[in-house]
Task: structure prediction
Amino acid sequence: MSRNDAVADRFEEFADRLEATGVEYKPQSYRRAAENVRAHPESVESLVAGDGEGVEAIEGVGEALAAKIVEYVETGEIEELEEFRAELPVDMAALTSVEGVGPKTVGTLYDELAIEDLDDLETAAREEKIREISGFGATSEENILAGIEFAWQANERSLLGDARPLGEELLEYVAGGVDEANEAVERCELAGSLRRWRETIGDVDLLVASDDPEAVVERFTDWGRADTVIEAGTSKASLRANGVRMDLRVVVPEEFGSALQYFTGSRDHNIGVRNRAIERDLKVNEYGVFDISGVDDPDAGQRVGERVAGETEAGMYEAVGLPHIPPELREDSGEIDAAVAGELPDLVDADAVRGDLHVHTDWSDGKDGIEEMIAGAAAFGHEYLAITDHAAGPGIVADTGLSDDDLREQRDAIEDAAAAVDAEIDVLCGVEANIDADGAVSVGDGVLDKLDLVVASPHSGLDGDGTDRIVAAIEHPSVDVIGHPTGRYLNRRPGLELDFERVARAAAKHGVALEVNANPSRLDLSGGAVRTAIEAGATIAVDTDAHRPASYELLRYGVHTARRGWAEAGDVLNARDFDGLRAFLDNEA
Ligand code: DGT
Ligand code: CA
Ligand code: CA
Ligand code: ZN
Result:
């Protein structure tokens, strides 16, 4: 997003907030200015930097607004807006995305019912509290409720890293917790995109096998973390927790496998399975696999013909002549053909990963010292670790990046720390260098030569095609790993556009690994890019980019993303033993 858009968004927020507090006229001038800033051909940065008439050249921008633009360009925020946000702590964008709710209504709802976000709004509407405010009635409350479902959908999909722990918590609660099994529950699994480990999640799907569905529904709707129960029936229910919709379905145990297969999706994968079944005179649906040879009207009902499978998912696939297909592959991208040919990959798993090659300490922007990060990696079970603090460069928070001198000094500190930590773990001295706009690497060659491992990553200027830039970094003789190759942030910025095939060919040629950054905000490379990279012969590295020891646990998100890209252990640099890793690093191509 350009700075002009960012300024315009803030002016629009000003207008909304002024309107919410009942200020007249002023909101219109903010909106007009926002429109003109957005459309202005020159960037606000260049207008602020230039010595001409500055930002006041933009129509509708007078002295007061100009000062705010300068403030934003120089500091990244506008003090007065921060104050407004503190005074009226509402999620203005989310609330006004509900049809019929404007800024003024947001102000009233906050004053009367302390409604701050969509969750609060939904709860208040369901509890019929809105109709009691003067100026509202039952009809406007019903309209708001109808609009909320749309607004949730229009809002962003949740990150896997947020939805997954929430889903696991729900699963454990419904199953009866750690110690005490819930007797009504025979089996219980997460399904849907969460089970496929998609990087973003529309809603969480929980499937339970039980002969007492009403007891299961009751336990589900009683979950202490639920903010609202959206609906509850005899074998189905939905709730919302932490802004995430969670759907429950209860089925009888003999249909659990078929339901799990169906509700895991993806939809297109299921269609592929069903088409294959039809060729074999079988009917496949969420209730089972049925032999319909000799059945007059196969469409007479859901359970027609003779049941041949349904209790287990493996049985479902077996009935249509396929091996079990791992959920991460079920995206209708050739997995059924591969299964038929006996060519499904033997996917990498978290146990195969032996070390982390991208980790920060408090020498740069990490939260803990070198010793803590080494001890944490050993405790996590790693056999080796590379410390790769940020080198100074564009996009790195001021004063956190290391100079060449700092890096020389840190080498000794890493060696001392490794000796001090009482654990069997090999520690490499590395750096995360910046890949500049022209593909240059932001650390002196004399320093790079002395390091065991060099991660190079893009941190700024993340617009447009970055293929030449990344390939240039790959060609640098000291670079070993390209960190978060696109620089994307899920739901926030798309990052560089890359021709992954070209990047991967270069990486393969020069013996450079491409990272799958396991941070759930990044997952960069994506599963799709991993697949392209591997097919072009590249090696990948699954790293956490941990800034504190607890983040070593994020590894699984990277591993499952690699699995979505059909990666086997042999494709993963840090699944090699330490000698194998050293051989890769020493091979200067
Ligand atoms: P999401 O929630 O948008 O992240 O994605 P999913 O895949 O979890 O989709 P969801 O929650 O709408 O439905 C769960 C699964 O149920 C989906 O992956 C496949 C199956 N499913 C749902 N609706 C249909 C349908 O109309 N046809 C077929 N074949 N499968 C469906
Ligand atoms: Ca779902
Ligand atoms: Ca769903
Ligand atoms: Zn990093």
